[in-house]
């Protein structure tokens, strides 16, 4: 197989995570129907606040072949839906045996992980902290702060994304604000 020979350069602002030269993929709240536990608050926010931007990320133009590495930044904005913090959809990789590394550039949050066997883990994101997501674990970034949560990620380029499992089953756990602090609770909607 012919290997990729193209080098890639990208600029990512340390505070905002944004690039001046690349186009991001944006996920507004309406793209996350059913993912937050409180459907009523979800509908209200989508309709009343003109569908806020929950997160955006960069998918660079790197071949998705074995031996290549996909990398970019992911930016989760501050906000809540019925007490549940703004977060990414979360996904397994199609090649389930894929690890991924995230390095927090700015903001305050968590990486929530779970595997098909039902084990789950949560790790703190704060600037300078790297989190390793082990193979077989779905992963979701959660912003518990007042500023954007900015992380840099890298994983094998041929891993693919499996969104269907999370979209149909949900996550076992969710993170909500209680008495001004984040708390991990069982997801009442988990199937
Ligand atoms: O795939 P989600 O959960 O929508 O979140 C997107 C993030 O995950 C990644 O796929 C990396 O795992 C990035 O492309 C992006 O930062
Ligand atoms: Fe991933």
UniProtKB/TrEMBL annotation:
The keyword Calcium does not apply. Keywords: Gluconeogenesis, Glycolysis, Isomerase. CDD domains: cupin_PGI (cd02218). Pfam families: GPI. SUPFAM superfamilies: RmlC-like cupins (SSF51182). Gene3D superfamilies: Jelly Rolls (2.60.120.10). One of its GO terms (molecular function) is glucose-6-phosphate isomerase activity. Its EC number is 5.3.1.9. Pathway: Carbohydrate degradation; glycolysis; D-glyceraldehyde 3-phosphate and glycerone phosphate from D-glucose: step 2/4. The keyword Isomerase applies. It catalyses: alpha-D-glucose 6-phosphate = beta-D-fructose 6-phosphate. Residues 27-179 form the Glucose-6-phosphate isomerase prokaryote domain. Belongs to the archaeal-type GPI family. This is glucose-6-phosphate isomerase. It comes from Cytobacillus purgationiresistens. The lineage of its organism: Bacteria, Bacillati, Bacillota, Bacilli, Bacillales.
């Amino acid at each position: 197989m012919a290997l990729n020979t193209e080098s890639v350069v990208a600029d990512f602002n340390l505070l905002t995570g944004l690039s001046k030269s690349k186009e991001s993929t944006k996920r507004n709240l309406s793209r996350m129907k059913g993912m937050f536990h409180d459907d009523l608050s979800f509908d209200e926010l989508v309709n009343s606040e003109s569908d806020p931007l929950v997160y955006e990320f960069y998918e660079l133009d790197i071949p998705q072949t074995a031996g290549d590495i996909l990398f970019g930044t992911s930016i989760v904005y501050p906000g809540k839906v019925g007490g549940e913090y703004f977060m990414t959809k979360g996904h397994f990789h199609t090649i389930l045996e894929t690890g991924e590394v995230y390095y927090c550039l700015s903001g305050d949050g968590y990486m929530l992980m779970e595997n098909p066997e039902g084990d789950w883990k949560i790790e703190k994101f704060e600037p300078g902290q790297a989190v390793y997501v082990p193979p077989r674990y779905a992963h979701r970034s959660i912003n518990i702060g007042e500023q954007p949560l900015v992380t840099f990620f890298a994983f094998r380029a041929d891993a693919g994304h499996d969104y269907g499992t999370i979209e149909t089953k949900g996550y076992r756990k969710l993170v909500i604000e209680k008495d001004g602090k984040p708390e991990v609770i069982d997801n009442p909607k988990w199937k």
